[in-house]
Design a protein that fits this description.
34% helix; 283 residues; Helicase, Ruva Protein, domain 3; two-stranded antiparallel ribbon; alpha/beta; Rossmann fold; 2 domains; single chain; seven-stranded mixed β-sheet
Length: 283
């Protein structure tokens, strides 16, 4: 305990929170408390003596207990920032992560503002599709997911953001887009091996396994996407895939075997090869 505030004051509550399983305990507590108060984080420092009423205190204590049990802050808040967007999230979708913004950056770099059709496979919250639709008003962006609840969530995000150039549909990879072609296909598919120890650690314990695990080596879904993508790409169309930090070489080989050219991998902020891409000139 520190400062002069009472037991229910902002400064006391923040000083007394213990989150031993979190690497960002202070940030977690501030985000949760700000949400309870309906204020920005800056408010917490501006008004440290403010006291919570009984209902607010109960909500904050409940949120902290959930975080102490390991539940991700994004699920507790029901929202997560991605790109320039604030997105609704829920436990049946992955939590959008900063590393995935590399897919968006690369797609925007490779393709101009000229109107095109783009496809986001395994869209989840709709994060990638909605970021692309925001930055390229002339594009027609389709996001698909096999989980009906994810499609409904992505559509809620689209509607709230008022993006008329994006749409979402239920589809197991390409099943619902037969006969359609795109200049750009992007995906952050499952890419974790079934026996990966990290599945029992941290936030991923609370995320849907179907959005994380892809067979013995983690490449089952990536293989399928690479094999099926040429039938859905226009001549010269691009395929961009996020993958694990140690899978880039394998993904490049898969792209080459399927006839893709201009193949390369790009590194995330931590220096890991996080995405790989290729162009299908003979589509």
């Amino acid at each position: 305990m520190s400062g002069q505030g009472s037991a229910s004051s902002i400064q006391h509550l923040l000083a007394s929170v213990v989150l031993p399983g979190s690497d960002t305990a202070q940030l977690d507590a501030e985000l949760l408390l700000a949400a309870v108060l309906g204020k920005p984080r800056s408010y917490l420092r501006t008004w440290p003596e403010r006291e919570l009423n009984a209902e607010q205190l109960q909500r904050f204590q409940t949120a902290i207990q959930r975080r102490q049990q390991g539940e991700p802050v994004a699920y507790i808040l029901g929202q997560q920032g991605f790109w320039s967007l604030d997105l609704e999230v829920a436990p049946h979708t992955l939590i959008p992560r900063p590393d995935t913004e590399l897919l968006v950056e690369t797609a925007l770099e490779l393709l101009p503002h000229t109107p095109i059709a783009a496809l986001d496979l395994g869209t989840g919250t709709g994060a990638i599709a909605l970021a692309l639709a925001t930055e390229r008003p002339g594009w027609r962006v389709t996001g698909v997911d096999r989980v009906p609840e994810a499609v409904a969530l992505a559509e809620r995000n689209r509607s709230r953001l008022k993006l008329g150039n994006a749409q979402f549909a239920e589809s197991h990879w390409f099943s619902a887009v037969a006969g359609h072609t795109f200049a750009l296909i992007v995906s952050n598919p499952p890419y974790i091996a079934a026996d990966d120890k990290h599945l029992a650690e941290g936030d991923v314990r609370f995320e849907p396994a179907s959005a994380l695990v892809a067979g013995i080596d983690g490449l089952d879904d990536i293989r399928r996407i690479i094999q099926q993508a040429p039938a859905h790409l226009v001549a010269g169309g691009w395929l961009l895939l996020e993958h694990g930090f140690d899978q880039a070489a394998a993904v490049r080989e898969l792209l080459a075997a399927q006839g893709f050219t201009a193949i390369e991998s790009r590194r995330d902020l931590a220096g890991h090869e996080r995405i790989s891409l290729g162009r299908y000139a003979n589509a």
